[in-house]
Amino acid sequence: MMNERAHVDMVSLGVDRLLDDPTVAVPDGRLGLITNPSGVNEDLRSTLDLLAERTDMDLRAAFGPEHGVRGDKQAGVEYGDGVDEATGTRIRSLYGDTRRIQPEQIRDIDVLLCDIQGIGCRFYTYLYTLAYALEGVAGTDTELVVLDRPNPIAPLGHDGNRVPDEHANFVSGYRLPIIHRMTIGELAGYFNGEFDIGADLSVVELDGWDRETWYDETDLYWVQPSPNIPTLSAALLYPGTCLFEGTNLSEGRGTTTPFELVGAPWIDPHEFAGLLNGAGLPGVRFRPVYFTPSFSKHEGERAGGVKIHIDDRSALSPVQIGLTTLITAFREYPQTEWRTRDGADTIDRLAGGPELRERIDTSSNDPFAVCEAIRASWQSDTTAFERVCERYRRY
User: Fold this and answer.
1) Which residues pair with 34 in a beta bridge?
2) Which residue, of 65, 157, 387, 395, has the fewest CB within 10 Å?
3) What is 14-221's CATH topology?
4) Which pLDDT value is given to residue 6?
5) Does the model's pTM come out above 0.90?
6) Does the pLDDT at position 250 exceed 90?
7) CA-CA-CA-CA torsion for 166, 167, 173, 176, nearest 10 degrees?
8) Residue 1: per-residue pLDDT
C-alpha cells in the first residue's frame, strides 16, 4: 500500500505568486504563455483562463506542447495553430510542423511565461519544449519566465544514464539521467547554463516546497501532467515502465491504469508475475492480470501481464522495476520484440543510444543480475549529474 500522509505541506505555486503580485516577474508588456491542462492555480483554475481575464495583463498568444493547450490530443498527435474557444486567445502549436518557437511568433511578445507540470523523468517532451523555448528567445528582446511547480517524484533518487549529445532527441536529451529530481524551473536554469543558451530567464519560485516531499503530502490537487499519467502511482512507475514503449508489449495505454500495467497476448500472467515477484524487487508486488486496451498496442485484444502495485514508495526504484520486467519479457517470451519507427529502434531514443538494447539482446544471465549490471554501468553518469545539478537547485 502507498505510504499514508505523515503531514501536509502548504505550497504556493509560481502561478499563484505571480497573480498575487505581477511585479515579481512581469513588468507592463505583452505576454505569451506556454501551457497545457496541468497549468492551473491552487484553486484548479487554468492559467490561460486567469491570464486572459486579467485587465492588467496583455496576453497575446498561448503556445501548446504535445497534447495541446487544452489536453485534447493523444500522445504523438501533431496539430496546427488555432484559436482557443474558451478565451479567444491565439494558439501557436509547438507540436506540429515545428517543435521550436519561430522568431515571428514572439515579435509582439515581451515576456513568454511557461506553466507546465513536469513529471521528474527525462522521457517527457515538455522538458524539451522548454529547452527549445529558451533557445528560441535567446538573442531576442523576449524574456522567458518559468512559473515553477513541484517535481512529483522528487524524493526518488537520481537514476539512469545520461544521454550523449550525439543521441539527443525530443524524448531524451540535454545529458539528463532518467530520474533528474529537478523542478521545471530548476531544469530551465540547467538548460540555460549548462548548454550556454544565454536566454533572459527568470523563475517565479515555489514557496513552502521541499524536495523530500511527495506530491500527495502537499495541499495541492493532483492534476495529471498528460493524458496517460492519471495518478501519482503512474508517475512513480513511469521512469521504468515507459521503456516498454520501445517494445511490442503494452505499457497499459488504452486502459484505466497506464504505466501500471505491462503485458501482451502471448504472455502467461501467472508465470510472468511469479518470475517478477521471485526477483524480490523492493517496494512493489506484481499481480497477474488480463486486460484489453481500447487503443494503442493490442487494441481490442486480450493481453496477459502484470499490474504493478506499490507497497513502499520509500524503497521504490522505478528504473530497476522497468529494466527487470523488460529483460524478463525478452528472456521468457520469444514473441517479444523491439519496436521501430522510421527505420530506427524506439528504445534507442528512450535509452539515449543502442547500448541498452544491445546488452539485453546479448546477455543470457538472470534478468535481475543483468539489470543491476546495467545500472552499475550508469552510476558514474548519475554521480556526475548529481554534482552538476547542485548548481541549479533552488529548494
Assistant:
1) 63, 114
2) 387
3) Rossmann fold (3.40.50)
4) 53
5) yes
6) yes
7) -90
8) 46
